[in-house]
Design brief:
The chain has 252 residues and is α/β, with parallel strands linked by helices. The chain has one domain: Rossmann fold, CATH 3.40.50. The chain has a seven-stranded parallel sheet with strand order 3-2-1-4-5-6-7, with helices on both faces. Helix 5 links the parallel strand 5 and strand 6. Helix 1 packs across helix 8, helix 3 packs parallel to helix 4 and helix 4 runs parallel beside helix 5.
Length: 252
């Protein structure tokens, strides 16, 4: 089976790896992002504009997002798989010390951006009675941790929105999956730590984290299952990541 896949945040990490995985199987790929040079590099590497269509815009901008979705050329207009991958975390400060601007950026990207793209693409899937929406959630949507605050909340939103979409889509053949990765080495931590590469590297050192190709392979698997099968949610971690005991800490 081949088709058309739209991947938000397709210039690096999970998004780029997924673009390469589906391109290798003959799919037409749409990638979105803010960095035009990276979009162009991926497009060239994967066979040019006949195989890969690029959309350069900021997913935090509602008007720009709507215009980008409306601009899809006929050859790429019928999206079979939507991967809502664009997202970020900013900072690890406790809630009473966080930047409100960074909180709003996370909500505008992880929540509002996902909603805007989904609302633009989903009606076509319902009309054609086929398609698959894969939302990139996180283990952070299930398991909170100090400094996670709004990032954890945004991924909990993605989880519940995915479930509610499944409920809304009853009676159709459109599938929805919430994929919840744990520790994976990407640019994610560099962004979170505001460009501090050494601090980001220390998080992965000796931990054997997952890599973007692992997540791309999982996305390929859940979308290539028989059409009668829907993976509702899938939490994945590296073997080295697990849970700790509940904290019991004296109050000051």
């Amino acid at each position: 089976m081949t088709g058309t896949i739209l991947i938000t945040g397709g210039t690096s990490g999970f998004g780029a790896a997924t673009a390469y995985r589906f391109n290798a199987q003959g799919w037409k790929v749409i990638i979105t992002g803010r960095r035009g040079d990276r979009l162009a590099a991926v497009q060239e590497d994967l066979g040019g504009p006949e195989r890969v269509h690029t959309l350069e815009f900021d997913i935090q901008d509602r008007r720009a997002t709507e215009q980008a979705m409306d601009s899809l050329p006929p050859a790429f207009a019928d999206v079979d798989v939507l991967v809502n991958n664009a997202g970020l975390a900013l900072g690890r400060e406790p809630a009473h010390e966080c930047s409100l601007d960074e909180w709003e950026t996370m909500v505008d990207t992880n929540v509002k951006g996902l909603l805007r793209v989904t609302r633009a693409i989903l009606p076509g899937m319902v009309e054609r009675n086929r398609g698959h929406v894969v939302n990139l959630g996180s283990v952070a949507g299930n398991w909170p941790y100090p400094g996670g605050n709004v990032y954890c909340a945004s991924k909990a939103f993605v989880q519940q929105f995915s479930r509610a979409m499944r409920s809304d889509l009853q009676g159709t053949r459109v599938r929805v999956t919430n994929l919840e990765p744990g520790l994976c080495e990407t640019e994610f931590s560099v962004v979170r730590f505001r460009g501090d590469q050494a601090k980001a590297d220390s998080l992965y050192e000796g931990n054997d984290p997952m890599i973007p190709d692992d997540i791309a392979e999982i996305i390929w698997w859940v979308t290539s299952l028989p059409a009668r099968v829907n993976v509702n949610s899938l939490e994945v971690m590296p073997v080295t990541q697990s849970w700790g005991p509940l904290a019991v800490i004296p109050v000051r």
